[in-house]
UniProtKB/TrEMBL annotation:
Organism per entry: Fictibacillus arsenicus
SUPFAM superfamilies, per the entry: lambda repressor-like DNA-binding domains, SinR repressor dimerisation domain-like
Keywords in alphabetical order: DNA-binding
Protein's name according to its UniProt entry: Transcriptional regulator
SMART domains for this protein: HTH_XRE
Pfam families: HTH_3, SinI
PROSITE patterns recorded: HTH_CROC1 (PS50943), SIN (PS51500)
Domain spans labelled HTH cro/C1-type: 6-61
């Protein structure tokens, strides 16, 4: 969830909710609601303000981190091979969705 990632990066930077809110020009109550997952649909403009204060790219707030340290080497090689063969992310996602559907049919 975005709120959990905001809280993670905020605490890593040693900022209080109040400090983050003040520096980003956002209401303290909004940051608090975001971190508690009460507010779950922040605008990209708000996320840009928060990311700027936290000195991180916006995508760090939007997308969960991938634990590449625990990624099986065979999986990593498969992903690299797919990327090298010209398979797009969208094609790969479609393949995964098809497999999920196929598995449900069995």
């Amino acid at each position: 969830m975005i709120g959990e990632r905001v809280k993670k990066y905020r605490t890593e930077k040693g900022l209080s909710i109040t400090a983050l809110a003040d520096k980003a020009g956002v209401a303290k109550s909004y940051i608090s609601a975001l971190e508690r997952n009460i507010q779950q649909n922040p605008s990209i403009q708000l996320l840009e303000k928060i990311a700027d204060v936290l000195n991180i790219p916006v995508d760090h707030l939007i997308m969960p981190e991938v634990d590449t340290q625990n990624l099986d080497q065979e999986w990593a090689d498969l992903v690299k091979e797919a990327m090298g063969s010209g398979v797009s992310k969208e094609q790969f996602k479609e393949f995964l969705e098809f497999n999920k559907w196929k598995n449900k049919q069995n």
